[in-house]
Amino acid sequence: MNIKTLKNNANSLFLASIIAASVVLSGCGGGGGVQAKEADKASVNAVPVEVATASLNPVNASYNGTATLVTDHEAQVASKTSGVLVKLLVEEGSVVREGQLLAELDDSTPVAAVAQAEAQMHKADATFAYAEQSIQKQLISKREYDQANFDAQTQRAALQTAKLQLAYTRIMAPVSGVVAERSVKLGNLVQVNQSLFRIVNMDTLQAVLNVPERQLGILKAGQTVALEADALPGQEFAGYILRIAPVVDPTSGTFRVTCEFRDKSRTLKPGMFGRIDIVYDHRDEALTIPRSALIEEDGETAVFVVDTAPVKAPAADAGKSKDGDKSKVAAKDAAGKDAGKDGKAIVATTPGLVAHRKLVKIGYSDGDKVEIRSGLDAGTRVITVGRNAVRDGTAVQVLDTSTMVASRAGGDKA
Asked: CATH number for the domain including 125?
């Protein structure tokens, strides 16, 4: 053979193979091609969503509230007499004890008053002594004797008053604590009942919560609480419920819950704003899902779960089949089985995913976790992102969040 004859034979074989392949595909793929196109179309129209799996986790039942810290022991130190402030012994922030001297007023006038009262008392005592002798000798009347006795008692009382006014010139701490405020300066003329200092005891601090009345039967005195102050991020302080008001305010529908905190480090300060968490129940194994999966509509709580969509079998093409075997092949192809007994290729399809709406009954909430009491089983996948874009029966495409996180991390590094 020459070279030209060989080329012609090769071209003839190539064309024959193409024709044979076309015949095979036209014979076995009539229904499978249509199904593949429909699957591709469904895949393109599927809504991308992110899902989470319902699983068993520990969950706490708690009440959260906010309150301002106050001190239970606080005293306003006021002057009980008038005078010029001549000594100032403490400043704001000073730690003082009960009975400690804080300041002194000018005592020259009270000292003189005490001396005068002592003189008047001695005079009255002498007069009363003379009256006692005279009454025995019947030199004075009973009325004169009683008057002398009364004058002596009056002068003794006046002396006690003068000494008390002298003692008031020394300003003492009525309680132990820290000087939170000083309202007077050296040389100021202090008047009676004028506020000089404010002393607070920071060993125990309290926070008062106004709790809705539905919690009245749940919270109890002695339950532990946790406090996080806005001024101290990352720190948590333990306390307990000191007392609960026995009545509900009819105006607000709340009752008062007083919590107490003992911070030996004195890191907490009166006036700080804090968030208080009271845990009143705990469950070790509760079926939970993310809070973002919940849908609140018309007084009902629901979620969208992801299920596998059923695969539809392609219609049989009886016009192109001589013995009806093609309908059997298409049915077996839809079931995912190998129908190639006659050597023909079978087109396999992958079932899709759809969203179904399910009503659920929720229980406790703990952070971003919500307990599911009924409506779901462990392992069920619920839609967390994209749930507003789907309806019951909508085709969905589940995004691989782990791959997305990894790609984002790779992009950040790049």
From this structure: 1.10.287.470
Give me 286's structure tokens.
């509760």
DSSP 313-325: PPPP-GGG-SSSH
pTM score > 0.85 for this model?
Answer: no
Report the candidate in 160, 19, 50 with the shortest Cα–Cα distance to residue 398.
50
Collapsing DSSP to helix, strand or coil, 21 comes out as helix
Q: What is residue 175's DSSP assignment?
A: S
Asked if the structure places residue 15 within a domain, the reply is: no
Report pLDDT digits (tens) over 116-158. Answer: 999 999 999 999 999 999 999 888 899 999 999 999 999 999 9
* 242-293: pLDDT as tens digits: 999 999 999 999 999 999 999 888 899 889 999 999 988 888 889 999 999 9
My answer on whether 345 and 314 are in the same domain is yes
- What residue numbers bound the domain in which 407 lies? 45-59+286-413
Collapsing DSSP to helix, strand or coil, 27 comes out as helix
CATH code: domain of residue 316 = 2.40.420.20
Q: Are 134 and 221 members of one domain?
A: no
